[in-house]
Amino acid sequence: MATTTNTADTVVAEDGVRRRDFIEIAAVATAGVGGIFTLIPLVSQMAPSKDVLAESSTELDISSLEPGQSIKAMFRKQPVFVRNLTQAEIDAANAVDVGELRDAESLADRTIEGHENILVVMGVCTHLGCVPLGAAQGEIKGEFGGYFCPCHGSHYDTAARIRKGPAPSNLEVPEYSITDGTLLIG
Amino acid sequence: MSFPWAKQYEPTNPFMKYLDEKLPLPRFVYNAVGAGYPVPRNLSYMWNFGVLAGFCLVLQIVTGVVLAMHYAANDAIAFDSVEHIMRDVNWGWLMRYAHANGASFFFIVIYLHIFRGFYYSSYKAPREMIWLIGVVIFLLMMATAFMGYVLPWGQMSFWGAKVITGLFGAIPLVGESIQIWLLGGYAPDNAALNRFFSLHFLLPFVIAGVVILHIWALHLPGSSNPTGVEVKSESDTLPFHPYYTAKDGLGLAVFLILYAAFVFFMPNALGHPDNYIPANPLSTPALIVPEWYFYPFYAILRAFTFDFLLPAKLWGVLAMFAAILVWFFLPWLDKSPVRSGRYRPLFRKFFWILMLDMAALFYLGGAHAEEPYIMLSQIATAYYFLHFLVILPIISSIEKPEPLPFSITEAVLGPDEKKAQGDSAGTAA
User: Fold this and answer.
1) Any CB–CB contact under 8 A between B427 and chain A?
2) In a domain? residue A61
3) Interface of B with A in 273-292 (CB under 8 A)
4) A131 with A166, same domain?
5) What's the farthest any 2 CA atoms get from each other in chain B?
6) Residue B239 near chain A (CB below 8 Å)
7) B364: burial class by Cβ within 10 Å (0-12, 13-18, 19+)?
8) Cis peptide before B242 (omega within 30 of 0)
9) Catalytically active residues of A, by annotation
């Protein structure tokens, strides 16, 4: 064949790259890049769908929530605790030296201005994700009068800050706002 | 087996050498679709469709697994879950359209693959087993496609399931019991939908397994070619890679352009609008037809409108299955020693008449069940069986084939000895 064909594949440029080498690499690279782009839909389809994202905020009426009362609600398919703190609980939380805490936050840091008595936290232990006790009446509130996680014994205080046990940080405060007795989380 | 001149896999990288000793998977791939598989040098683009069919199978499995992540096989929510895929799931519309049109394109590719086999008599010895396994794959594909079409649980899904399982009701004595057993109820409902989903997920992997047998059986005699003359020497072949990977790559690119045109610009052109109406057991759509790829067999089913010894319904069902089962007997119905239609003038004419007949059946299967379509279906069905059972055996005994080339090389380069010597002569000179 070599004797009868004197075509592009026998023409070698000075740098040793044949025309065919270039075509080969260009063709395979084009197909390869195109193939990589098909991964975008294949990966993205597993991310939360639009209906899941549409459920990403929760609205609650808290106008009739008396001091000492709590609401357990759902936010993004997870429990959220809303508590109207009693004056005793606020005082207990403010009495703590913030600098000595594992996760240094004051009650004021964890509430919004004008509504320091309304504590909104995710009911998800920061250790391994169990739901702590203490929101409903009669549940164990732990050594610090806030929340207690029964899975691995994490104690949270009245401001839901970690005080004892394996959890690394305070119960998470989601983004929220309060307008005319209506709480909007998310 | 391979030809003695097949290139051997010789890894240079130490890791690949190690792997080759412990698990020679790269060697296996090299011998199957790499430089280690010598292929006739004269394959036309009609030989692209095996690789394209393999691509379609992978495409259907990938998009299908994705859809199964979001679909719910429950008659109360199946239809809504498909709309959920279309509207809410990220890229869900693409996955569903790619899967639905993927099925149609899979069948386009498979039909061309089968018709290639008809024309070039790819079913003849020593390749009968490849052909038989191929017909099994086609039957599995039909079952898979049918059950997949039921899953969206629209009107066509529901009535398709009802009609197709109704075919089993034609079996004498036990038919109705079988139909009820298949459906798990008296009409398609949640039980049927759930088992169809389960089987629709399973069968593609069964197909993949049978495809491996198909390719295994192919690699014993090696690929056929447009002349039908067997490979005689090294000059008749080229290594699969890079020659046919490149040729198949071009075919794949053309295929993808056509496929993308449907997926992105007319995704519902091959479907039925009625399937966007939720399943309703109280109302049958005016025109109840299967997907287009079943039309020829549906036309054959409907062609039997008269009782003759057996009830018409049973004749229709038997004929429909026989229309595919007759392919199993092709290697023994066509006794001509010449394979390729290229050298069989009489066979070639009747091949094209069969193609016209198939085209007619394709058209008639999608038409309303009324005159003149019923009569035309009857004629087309009669000719279909006449071709395979009468015309083909007669042709193979009376036909005088045209002279065959001595070898593939001669067919490509002409009877020049020096050229025909191929590579070895070339390098010597």
Assistant:
1) yes
2) yes
3) none
4) yes
5) 81
6) no
7) buried
8) yes
9) 152
What tens digit of pLDDT does each residue of B173-219 get? 898 999 999 999 999 999 999 999 999 999 999 999 999 999 999 99
Does residue A2 form part of some domain? no
Question: Do A151 and A94 have their domain in common?
Answer: yes
Burial of A137-159, coded b for 16+ CB within 10 Å and e otherwise, reads: eeeebbebbbbbbeeeebbbbbb
Cross-chain Cβ contact A44/B90 below 8 Å: yes
Q: What is the pLDDT of residues B262-309, one digit of tens each?
A: 999 999 999 999 999 999 999 988 888 899 999 999 999 989 888 888
Range of the domain at A30: 8-42
Residue A60 — φ and ψ, nearest 5°? -135, 145
- Enter the ipTM: 0.81
Contacts of the segment B78-86: beta carbons below 8 A, 24+ positions apart: B78/B151, B78/B152, B78/B153, B78/B193, B79/B152, B79/B153, B79/B154, B79/B278, B79/B279, B82/B151, B82/B152, B82/B153, B84/A49, B84/A51
As a whole number of angstroms, the distance between CA A179 and CA A186 comes to: 14
**Closest residue of B to A4, CA-based?**
B426
Any idea what the Cα angle at residue B421 is, between residues B415 and B422, rounded to 5°? 105
Beta strands in B264-418 (DSSP E): none
Closest CA to B361 of B397, B323, B403: B323
- Which residues of chain A lie closer than 8 angstroms to B69, CB-CB? 45-46
Q: Which of B60, B66, B89, B235 to mutate to test the interface with A (most CBs of A within 10 A)?
A: B89
Residue with tokens 């201005």: A113
Q: Are residues A71 and A97 in the same domain?
A: yes
Residue A54, amino acid: A
Q: Enter the DSSP assignment of A132.
A: P
Q: Which residues of A touch B70 (CB under 8 A)?
A: 45, 49
Q: Binning pLDDT at 50, 70 and 90, where does residue A1 land?
A: very low
Domain ranges of chain B: 1-36, 37-428
Number of domains present in the structure of chain A: 2
A30 lies in the same domain as A79:
no
Looking at the structure, do residues A123 and A67 belong to the same domain, yes or no? Answer: yes
Residues A32 and A72 in one domain: no
A37 within some domain = yes
In-domain check, residue A12: yes
Taking only the tens place, the pLDDT of each residue in B125-175 is: 899 999 999 999 999 999 999 999 999 999 999 999 999 898 888 888 898
C-beta of residue A165 within 8 angstroms of C-beta of residue A64: no
Paired with A156 in beta bridges are A147, A162
Please indicate, yes or no, whether residues A38 and A88 belong to a single structural domain of this protein. no
**How many CB atoms are located within 10 Å of the residue A185 CB?**
21
Q: How far apart are CA A65 and CA B256, in angstroms?
A: 62
Answer yes or no: is pLDDT of A11 > 70. no
Same domain flag for A91 and A26? no
The Cα B77–Cα B59 span in angstroms is 26
Q: CATH class for domain B37-428?
A: mainly alpha
